[in-house]
Amino acid sequence: MKLEIQNVGTIEIKNIVLDFNGTIAKDGRVYEEIKDKIIKLAKNFDIYVLTSDTHGNAKKELSELPVKLQILKTSNHTEEKKEFVENLKNTFAVGNGSNDSLMLKVADIGVCVINDEGVSSKSIINCDILCKSIIDALNLLEYPKRIVATLRG
């Protein structure tokens, strides 16, 4: 997906990077209402889920979804997520926690979501767009003119 954004330039999105708990899952369980959206988006984007796997069930929860799971390995998850997105490029990243803040900052488009878990002020400061839910965040990719309208200068 290529977006022409006034006073920003051209942004190309090929990848979606999602945080797990607090973003697409609550208490280790993927929100049912986003499963169809992820399946639909996977037809046009590569989708990655980054998690520390706090509940130990991310692999099982994501087993039927067309995503690539990346379980974080280092003790500095903030930096690990940032480096993952920097290396991937062309990325639309979505998160809510403090350890998502730098990932959102370096993404081509960083989206912070406010779900049941709340949101870190560090992530709010570093995102490009703030959405009230994961549904709204994923809808931006189905209706990209919303991104253009929000980010144009």
What does the secondary structure layout of this molecule look like, with pairings?
Layout: E1 2-5, E2 9-12, E3 15-19, E4 25-26, E5 29-30, H1 35-41, E6 46-51, H2 58-62, E7 68-71, H3 77-88, E8 91-95, H4 101-106, E9 109-113, H5 121-126, E10 129-131, H6 134-142, H7 145-151
Parallel strand pairs: 3-6, 3-8, 6-7, 8-9, 9-10
Antiparallel strand pairs: 1-2, 4-5
Question: Could you describe the 3D structure shown?
Answer:
- By secondary structure, this protein is an alpha/beta fold.
- It has a single domain, classed as HAD superfamily/HAD-like (Rossmann fold), CATH 3.40.50.
- It is 34% helix and 26% strand.
- The protein contains seven helices and ten strands.
- The strands form three sheets. A six-stranded parallel beta sheet has the order 7-6-3-8-9-10, with helices on both faces. It has a two-stranded antiparallel ribbon with strand order 1-2.
- Strand 8, helix 4 and strand 9 form a beta-alpha-beta unit.
- 37% of the residues are buried.
Overview features:
153 residues, alpha/beta, Rossmann fold, 6-stranded parallel β-sheet, two-stranded antiparallel sheet, Soluble P-type ATPase, HAD-like_sf
- Uncertain segments: none
Work out the helicity level. Answer: 25-40%
Beta-strand proportion:
25-35%
Radius of gyration: 14 Å
H and E order = EEEEEHEHEHEHEHEHH
Largest sheet, spatial ordering of strands: 7-6-3-8-9-10
Task: Give the biggest beta sheet.
Answer: 6 strands, parallel
Task: Please identify the structural class as seen in this structure.
Answer: alpha/beta
Choose one word for the global shape.
globular
